[in-house]
Design goal:
disordered N terminus; Immunoglobulin-like; five-stranded mixed beta sheet; disordered C terminus; about 700 residues; cadherin binding; mainly beta; 6 domains; four-stranded mixed beta sheet
Amino acid sequence: VEVKSPFCLFPQVLLLAFAEDLECIPGFQRKVFYIEQPSEFTEDQPLLNLVFDDCQGNSKLNFEVSNPDFKVERDGSLFALKNVSDAGRALFVHARTQHAEDMAEILIVGANEKRAALKEIFKLEGNLGIPRQKRAILATPILIPENQRPPFPRSVGKVIRSERTEGAKFRLSGKGVDQEPKGIFRINEISGDVSVTRSLDREAIANYELEVEVTDLSGKVVDGPVRLDVSVIDQNDNRPMFKEGPYVGHVMEGSPTGTTVMRMTAFDADDASTDNALLRYNILKQTPTKPSPNMFYIDPEKGDIVTVVSPVLLDRETMETPKYELVVEAKDMGGLDVGLTGTATATILIDDKNDHPPEFTKKEFQATVKEGVTGVIVNLTVGDRDDPATGAWRAVYTIINGNPGQSFEIHTNPQTNEGMLSVVKPLDYEISAFHTLLIKVENEDPLIPDIAYGPSSTATVQITVEDVNEGPVFHPNPMTVTKQENIPVGSVVLTVNATDPDTLQHQTIRYSVFKDPAGWLEINPTNGTIGTTAVLDRESPFVHNNIYTAQFLAIDSGNPPATGTGTLHITLEDVNDNIPSLYPTLAKVCDDAKDLRVVVLGASDKDLHPNTDPFKFELSKQSGPEKLWRINKLNNTHAQVVLLQNLQKANYNIPISVTDSGKPPLTNNTELKLQVCSCKKSKMDCSATDALHISMTLILLSLGSLFCKSFP
C-alpha cells in the first residue's frame, strides 16, 4: 500500500482492512484530524478536506466552525478567513443536513506531537505500513455535541466487526450504560449502531470510556472487549461568572496615570481550550462620572483595572465622593457579539494622603480659670481637609512656649480632633494672674514632601486666672514635736503657724481643734498655742508606735470663710509609770510529787526599756519555824518556785515581789496561789481545795515545757 500523506493513512488502512464489512454510516467519514501548527494560517489557503455523508445525498449541508476565523466550504475544504497566528489547540467542525449531523475535531499540534499521535493510533512497529495485529472490532472515537435537542434517541456512531458470525451480538458497557449515570448510551445488538438517549452536559461529564464486546447466542464473549471513547463537544452554554467578590480596590490620590488598582477575573465553566471560555473584559458603567466619565480602564485580557486620568484629577478633596463603582463585564467567545456575558461591580476607594496641613480656626483663643482648679479650660478647634479616618487628619498638639512650670497639658479629642487644653497644676493668682501659651498642631502622619506647615498651624492662648478665697496654710504640715508622757496638765506643746495665701486681702486667722481622739489638747484661737488638758499617756490605745496624732483648723475671715487643716504628730517619750505584772498567779502540785519545781513565773511591763527588765524576783518573809519554798531566777524575765518538802493537801498563798529596772524602780507585791492535791492513777484530785480535776501527767509536762522555755 502506498500512503502519500500521513493525515490520510488512518482511513485508507481501515478501508483495506474492513472493506468487505463497511456500509454507509451517516456522519464524518473521519472524526479526528491533525494539522501541524504553522507560523501563521494564511488567508484563503485550504488546510484540509473534510468528508461528511448523511447517506442520503447531503441535502442542505451546512458546516459550522468553533473558531470564527475559519470556515468550511460545502465541498468540505477548510481555510482561514484571515491571517491567523494563534488558533488555539483545537477546532471543532459541526456538520448538519436534514437527515444527520456530526462533529469532527481538528487538533493543531507541533511536528513531534503529530508523529507521536499517529504512532499511538496505529501502534506501528518496524514497517510503518503494516499493522501489528488485525482488529476484529473497529470502535472509532465518537464526538457528540452537548445540549442536543430532541428527538432522542439519535445515532452518534457505529461499531464494525470484520467477521460476521451468525447469532453474534454487540454488547456495550461502562459508565453511561450499565453504570451511573445509567442508560445514556445503547448499542444495536445486530447492526452496532451506537445512540444517545438524552442531551449531554460536558460540564458534568466531558468523556465516557465505554467497552464493546461481541457475544454468541449463549452470552459468551467471543470478541473484545474493545474500548470506545465518547467525547462531549463543548457548546457555549455557560456564562462567565465572577466568584471572588466583593471586589474592592484602593488607589492613593494623586497616583500617576496607569497605576494598577486591582484585578478582576471571571470563571467560565466551558472548555478552557476553546473560545467558549476565552474571556474579554470591559467597563460598562462608572458611578459617579465626575471629574471624568472614564477614570479607569480594564485590560481586556488580564482584567487589570488601572487609572487613566492625570494625577491632578485624582484629588480626593475635590471629588464628589472618594468612592467609585464600576460595572465590569466579562464576555466569552473572545469578546465577540455572540459571546455570553457576566457582570460584577468593582468598588474603588480613593485613599487619602497627607497633602493638607491642619489649620487653627483662629489665631488666638481665650480662657478663664479660677486659681487652685484643675481640668480642661478651653478646646482649640482646627480644620483639615484630609480623610477623618486617617492619621493625615488626626491632630497632635504641642505647647511650644509659655509653660515653664508644666502647669498645662494639651490632648487631642479623638471624636472632634479638637485640642483640649488642661490645667494640671493649680494656678496661683497671687503669683501670676495671666498666662500666654503658644501652641502648634501637626498630623499623626507626616506631610507629603512638597507640603509644609504654615503660620495657620500655630495659635496663641490667653489665660486669665481669677482670684478665689484660699484657705490658710500651716507651716510646716505635718508638724512634729517630742514630749515626755505624764507632763503636767496645761503644759505648752507647740505654737502653730498658718498663713493666708490671699496676701492682697489682709484677712485674720483663727484656730480650733479639729480631731483630738483622746481629748488631751486645746489650742488658743488667736495665737495658735497648743496646750495639754489631760495627762499624755504613752501606753494609751490612742497612741500608735509612740506617736499621738491630732488635727487643727485655721479659718480666715473671708466671706465665705476658707479653712486650712494642719496635722500634729506628738512623739511621747516613756517614763517608768507602770509596775511589772506577774504570771501565772495559780499553780497546782501533787502532795506526793517527786519533782518539787512547782511553777515558772514570768514578768512583763508596759513601759519601754530601760524601764522594764531585768526584773528582780523575791519571796516575802515566810511564817513558821521551817521554810517551805524558795524562788530561783532563771533569766531577766523568768523565775522558778521550788518546794523544799512535800506539803499536805491544802491551798497555800506564796507572797512574791517583782521589781523593774526603772529609775526609780517600781515593785509589784502579789501572791501566788498554790493548790496541793492528791494524785492517784495519774489523776489529780483537788476537790478539797475547790480545784479542777486535771491529769497529773499534764501538770508535769507543763512544768517541763516552761522550764525548757526558760533555757533556750
